Write the structure tokens for this entry.
Amino acid sequence: MWPDVANPASTGTRSGLGDPTGSRWRRAWFIIPLVLVVAIYAQVLDHGYVDFDDNLYAFDNPHVRAGLTSEGLIWAFQTTFAANYHPLTWLSHMLDFELFGDRPGAFAAVNALLHAANALLVSALFARLFRSQFAGLAVGAVFAAHPVLVEGVAWISQRKTVLSTAFALGAILLFLNAGDPGRRSPLRWYVGALCAYILSLLCKSMYVTLPVVLPLLAWMEAGHNRRDRGAAPRASRPWLHGMCVRLLPFAIATCLFSLVTLWAQHAGGAMREFAEVSAVARLANAALAVERYVSSFLLPTDLSFLYPLPATVDWLGSLRAVTWEAGVTVMLIRWRTKIGISPIVGWVTFLIMLTPVLGLVQVGTQASADRYLYGPILGLLILACGGIEALARRRPWQHVRLGLITLAVGWIATLAAMAHVQVGVWSNSLSLVRSARAAVGSHPQFTGIEATLLLRAHHFEAASQLFQELIESNPRDLVALQNLGVCLLRTGRFDDAERCLRLSNQLAPGKPAPMINLAALLVETNRPADALEWIARARATGNLSASEQDALARLQAAAIELRARGDSVLP
């Protein structure tokens, strides 16, 4: 029989995964994840920005570039810029500029340090859940080295992912401490857990499902070490009542931040309507996304910064995914007397933590994203550890220990080598796009990024061809239209450029970028009065990026000089 959940200290037996107090693992579980993170991510010091959100979160955001200021603090807590509400993330980026200036390698290195801290927190969590320092060491090393987590670390814009996860892991450990009768001052641990959870939500609302995960982990820990798996844990009524009371403030925080996040995403235009993506299509994609995440956990190959949402529903693939996912669920429930509840808790935790990012509320154009697995991977790691523990219990530990250690070392070494290569992919935009094309094939977003890179390199003819391809497939592609207008302007085709830029202003009358580009054309074609009018319109929109403010200042000076001299002055 399982121990009463209301008395988690009723057993002191240890897991089949090793001695929880064995001195041989005490230093290893702390050092090895750190060594892996340093070996894999030291190269980010030489990385630059990528043309995918880094402009919003770093180099082209005037509030961030100003460092920590009182105005920036107010802006961070008021804004829904980038279709999100995450004030602590903004403050973190501001602190980067305050400490390091404009050094993208340093920003990515801070992400790596936070990832190392997360790996240590994961080690501590699993050492506690499975009462085994060896389990903590192995899982912490896997977390530190897994290639699928690289996106959340090497990408500067994903500071929100590593930072929110650090606070979420802290909240889990503190919550478990609050429920431990052997701990003093449980209220202090509980308040700490609630504060850590709120801080996590202020970094990113990824962990809004944590109030459902916390009781599962507490239930698992309470009865984990009993060898008799013949019955489910007896969750007594007092325990259930106490758990509901303790979780109520967490649930309130979840509801508040969920509403704020939905409002921010809707206000930022990131949320897709049901007319664009039907409910059935969303459910089908969710099933395929779960399959993709499990596959990338086991075999992390063909990774991409974007897995595009397909234009049509893959019904056969969705049916296959639903079938095997239901099969896994049924199998874990039926085999609970043999394998225990840890695998079930792991599988359910994985699905629950993934729910906010499965596309049921579709945001953006991605079908899935590697960064979304950064937290939910904990569920798969619990499932794997639970399975290994069941094997160790059925076989004498000394017979399987060497095999398990050899397998773990080999898998971690392979993951580390793959992760090192994957980190290099994030060194610049061009390598990122090429890797994505090799993984998932061509996509308009990849073409758009490559065209933008060519534009910045002043390869205007080549960039024009790619932008025209994008416009042929989507005539209302605002970014392609205005960038094509810039290419035509730079090659002296002023009439064609003006048609593109005026059309882009019609499609997005409140956007400053098309106005700035049109003002540049008007200066170039000796129409300073019209240029000054469009400059004033662009300034009136507000919320200009740093580069847009600089461009407007240059254009205004050129237009004023042009009007005064009466001849052509280039901006």
